[in-house]
């Protein structure tokens, strides 16, 4: 089983992760901190059940350019 997190970058530079299939949310000030927090959040959520084999981080970037 694989679970997918949608990752967005906040205006302050930090990152927010939201799992698309389970109620798991986390954040991190850096990409490395976010990755560690995602692993910790997933382990806590699945503490009493089989853990997913992999976690996919899908970064969403919304950018507005001046014409």
Write up what this structure looks like.
The chain is α+β, with helices and mostly antiparallel strands and about 70 residues long. The chain has one domain. It is built from one helix and four strands. It has a four-stranded mixed beta sheet, covered by helices on one side. The radius of gyration is 13 Å and the shape is elongated. The model has no long low-confidence stretch (mean pLDDT about 95).
Salient structural properties:
22% helix; 67 residues; alpha+beta; 36% strand
Question: Taking Cα atoms only, what radius of gyration do you get, to the nearest Å?
Answer: 13 Å
Helix content: 10-25%
Q: Report the total helices.
A: 1
Order of helices and strands: EEEHE
Terminal-residue CA separation: 43 Å
Q: Biggest β-sheet, characterized? A: 4 strands, mixed
- Whole-number count of domains: 1
Average pLDDT confidence is 94
Strand content: 35-45%
Low-confidence stretches: none
Quickly give the structural class: alpha+beta
The tally of beta strands, per DSSP, is: 4
Spatial strand sequence of the major β-sheet:
3-2-1-4
Give the overall form: elongated
């Amino acid at each position: 089983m694989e679970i997918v997190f949608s990752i967005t970058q906040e205006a302050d530079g930090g990152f927010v992760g939201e799992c698309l299939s389970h109620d798991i949310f986390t954040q991190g000030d850096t990409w490395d901190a976010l990755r560690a927090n995602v692993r910790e959040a997933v382990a806590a959520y699945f503490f009493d059940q089989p853990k997913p084999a992999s976690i996919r981080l899908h970064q969403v970037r919304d950018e507005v350019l001046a014409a």
